[in-house]
User: Which sequence fits this backbone?
């Protein structure tokens, strides 16, 4: 392809190549012995030699790209490392959902195994599955929930991660709270599908609130949240002429053994358990661990009247009263877990 003078042999090349290719060849010098052999070179350095510094400078110049902004935001979240890793995989759509398994020819059905309504992809898991909808509705409230799913999934995900507003007046940013709720949705789904012995002892909303408090105490700059939590747990006596029941219960994480206890005190803090026959135990209702309380005696009638008038001594998911033949009453209640420590 080179003539005797060392230039390009254009007569021969014109018979073989189109004009646009010839124009590109014309900008290159013909190979000559004194130029040396062609060798690969690093284009991002003037001397064409690779160095870690030049590679870092190149990546640093490109740091304003869309992908790198995601990276900075995710790894700056004040949440546990496993949640940061989960959100990084979520942004890159690397979770092995049923839809992804079908795409990789690892499964034959992409159906959601929880609700059996639609394809199990990240959009369904974090937004449209009934479990996710119920959680977001409780976290956000009906007004904010109405427009929560308007944007496409990728835009929705990053808009929430970037949001720095506090959730319900808390110290943590909404992006951090959002990442915790998303991780819990994924973890709950994995437990329901993969663990045959899984028992949901704590609701996902309650668990998320507890994890938020732990993150505040771990990543916060002050210890104020811990002091506030301690003040909320202090015992406050009832009004004169009333008694107050405090109960607590615990369930083992591995052996399913449970223990319950409680005390009834008057306005002075004196224990009065011997004056009122009562019984506590832990049971399972609707697949969740609940605390059941029973009281028996004349005092239950006044308590029931106060409860029906809107002054319920303790919030509960269900309550009832049974009148005995001797004129006494038996009061029963099914308490939610967050009310075990009133």
Assistant:
């Amino acid at each position: 392809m080179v003539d005797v003078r060392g230039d390009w042999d254009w007569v021969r090349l014109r018979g073989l190549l189109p004009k646009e290719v010839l124009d590109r060849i014309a900008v290159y010098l013909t190979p000559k012995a004194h130029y040396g052999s062609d060798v690969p070179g690093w284009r991002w350095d003037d001397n064409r030699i690779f160095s870690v510094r030049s590679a870092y400078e190149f990546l640093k110049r490109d740091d304003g790209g869309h992908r790198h902004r995601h990276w900075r935001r995710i790894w700056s979240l004040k949440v546990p490392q496993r949640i940061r890793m989960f959100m990084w995989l979520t942004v890159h759509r690397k979770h092995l959902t049923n839809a992804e398994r079908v795409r990789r020819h690892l499964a034959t059905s992409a159906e959601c195994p929880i609700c059996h309504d639609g394809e199990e992809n990240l959009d369904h898991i974090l937004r449209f599955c009934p479990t996710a909808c119920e959680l977001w509705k409780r976290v956000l409230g009906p007004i904010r929930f109405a427009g929560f799913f308007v944007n496409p999934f990728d835009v929705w995900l990053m808009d929430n991660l970037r949001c720095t507003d506090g959730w319900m007046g808390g110290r943590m940013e909404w992006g951090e709270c959002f990442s915790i709720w998303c991780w819990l949705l994924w973890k709950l789904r994995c437990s329901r599908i993969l663990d045959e012995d899984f028992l949901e002892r704590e609701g996902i909303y309650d668990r998320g609130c507890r994890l938020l408090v732990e993150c505040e105490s771990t990543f916060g700059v002050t210890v104020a949240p811990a002091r506030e939590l301690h003040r909320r747990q202090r015992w406050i006596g009832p009004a004169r002429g009333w008694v107050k029941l405090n109960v607590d219960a615990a369930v083992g994480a591995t052996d399913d053994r449970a223990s319950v206890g409680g005390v009834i005190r008057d306005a002075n803090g004196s224990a009065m358990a011997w004056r009122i026959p009562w019984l506590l135990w832990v049971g399972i209702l609707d697949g969740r661990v609940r605390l059941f309380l029973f009281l028996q005696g004349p005092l239950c009638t006044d308590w029931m009247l106060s409860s029906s008038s809107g002054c319920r001594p303790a919030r509960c998911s269900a309550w009832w009263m049974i009148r005995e033949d001797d004129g006494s009453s038996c009061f029963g209640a099914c308490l939610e877990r967050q009310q075990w420590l009133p």
Notes: Residues 244-339 form one domain. Residues 174-194 form the longest helix (21 residues). The CA atoms of residues 170 and 231 lie 17 Å apart.
